[in-house]
Specification:
Number of helices: 16
Helix content: 25-40%
Largest sheet: 8 strands, antiparallel
Distance between the termini: 20 Å
Radius of gyration: 22 Å
Structural class: alpha+beta
Oligomer: single chain
CATH class of one domain: Alpha Beta
């Protein structure tokens, strides 16, 4: 920080309009010290609650002139420390920028501010027979700005793709305070795809203050099939068989017995009993869905499934998905603390990955509940522990690290949608060479030479961050 803290706070308070929404007291700052990954905590110098893109540009411009780092934040649902504050820096809170500015049913687009809740986009589009496809498990609370930063996916990304596939244009405040337009309102662009470069940058390239989203038609027919298997390996084999047959469901999700137990304790979805639960959802024209459903059910039986249920009833389908999407929070019924890991393996190696996770879990004596987007191999192992036990946090973190290393070894990735944040910086070298990382740093430096935008995330060495974990060790 180039300016004395008190002097900078005086400058913040002097900003016309914005200065009335600068939070500095301990009680006001407490809720902004971490995101959903509460193992890391850092108190910011201040929080600025902005209400427009112009205010964002004004605050970022001041930070640029004074050399003060900043972090943008929506609902704080990041699970990688992605919106963790920087010591001596400020948080720019975007929650009040929560308007759906327009919906164009003919162009099938919506223009929204970054603080709009994900689910509210589909609610605004529903009267036109349209919806916003990306559906993270936290979609009832997470914001579009956060989805952009981490290129979020969700249960239905197998067919519809990630956030990057649904962003047409952006209005962005760069780290020097300049506002620029990226992309537009069409799927046909000329030149570099700047929106794709910005999406998933974890805030290192600036702050999106407006987004033009692609909407999709609400399908004519939807069928959701629920079935159980006597092992995770058989469920994984069923996923491979479905994809191998040339069928692309809109979603394929797997939960193990522990995750099912947690869901039943929490929201009581009425899942059948088994070692592994597989949810397969099909959507499209009625005739096509019926034909594909017959093929899917046949393949499930060939793979040795147990009880099978298929429904088109919206309420029954909603309960099925409520159980699945509540899994992360529901494991709180099974253990006081847990780590939500996020890695990817090729579909063809799902069974191998799950066997190895089970072995590692038994070897370390730590329970792991498995929930994952089976269609694209995105694993979400939930590592259960009790932080009150001496050494429990460290043992859980070691197991989480082993799982990430396993994913890379099997030809996958250290993250599917939760991002790198502060949690996985040290694992970047497992996937990328020194030259790769240097190129990423050069690109970041070209956009933000002072490294003020979300400093300490993804690429910056931990020594520059200053955040400490809840256990008191350097992050």
């Amino acid at each position: 920080m180039d300016t004395e803290p008190d002097k900078f706070l005086t400058m913040l308070h002097a900003l016309d309009g914005v200065g009335e929404r600068v939070l500095t007291s301990g009680a006001e700052l407490a809720a902004f010290g971490s995101d959903a990954l509460t193992a890391f905590y850092e108190r910011p110098l201040a929080v600025v609650v902005v209400e427009s893109g112009e205010e964002v540009a004004e605050v970022v411009g001041l930070c640029h002139r004074e050399g003060v780092p900043f972090v943008a934040r929506g609902s704080g649902t990041s699970l990688s420390g992605g919106s963790l504050p920087v010591g001596g820096g400020i948080v720019i809170a975007l929650n009040r920028m929560n308007r759906v500015l327009s919906v164009d049913p003919d162009a099938r687009t919506a223009v929204v501010e970054p603080g709009v809740i994900n689910l509210n986009v589909s609610a605004a589009a529903a009267p036109h027979g349209l919806a916003y496809a990306p559906d993270p498990s936290s979609q009832s609370v997470c914001t579009i700005g956060g989805n952009l930063a981490f290129n979020s996916g969700g249960a239905h990304c197998l067919k519809h793709g990630m956030t990057a596939n649904h962003i047409l244009g952006l209005r962005v405040v760069l780290p020097d305070g300049e506002t620029v337009e990226l992309g537009g309102d069409s799927t046909e662009h000329v030149g570099p795809d700047w929106t794709a470069i910005f999406t998933g940058c974890e805030g290192l390239f600036g702050i999106a203050v407006e987004a033009t989203l692609r909407l999709v038609p609400v399908p004519e027919s939807v069928r959701t099939t629920l079935t159980v298997f006597d092992s995770l390996e058989r469920a994984g084999d069923a996923v491979a068989a479905i994809v191998g047959a040339g069928l692309i469901p809109v979603a394929m999700e797997i939960m193990d017995a522990l995750a099912m137990e947690a869901a039943e304790a929490s929201v009581k979805p009425g899942y059948p009993v088994g070692e592994a639960l597989l949810i397969v959802e099909l959507e499209g024209e009625e005739a096509v869905v019926e034909e594909e459903l017959g093929a899917v059910e046949g393949l499930l039986r060939e793979c040795g499934c147990g009880e099978m249920r298929t429904t088109a009833d919206p309420d029954e389908r909603a309960l099925i998905w409520k159980g699945r999407k509540s899994a992360f929070s529901a494991v709180g019924w099974l253990a006081p603390d847990y780590i939500v890991q996020d890695g990817v393996v090729p579909r063809t190696r799902l069974g191998e990955a799950l066997r190895e996770i089970d072995r590692l879990s038994a070897e370390r004596g730590i329970r792991v509940a498995n929930v994952f987007h089976a269609g694209d191999g995105n694993l979400h192992p939930l590592i259960l522990y009790d932080g009150r036990e001496e050494g429990a946090v460290e043992r859980a973190e070691e197991l989480a690290a082993d799982i990430l290393a396993l994913c890379v070894e099997l030809g996958g990735s250290i993250t599917g949608e939760h991002g790198v944040g502060v949690e996985k910086r040290e694992y970047m070298r497992l996937m990328f060479s020194a030259d790769d990382l240097a190129l990423m740093e050069d690109l970041r430096a070209a956009v933000d030479p002072g490294r003020l935008a979300n400093r300490g995330k993804m690429l910056t060495p931990p020594a520059e961050m200053g955040a400490t974990s809840a256990t008191g060790s350097a992050s």
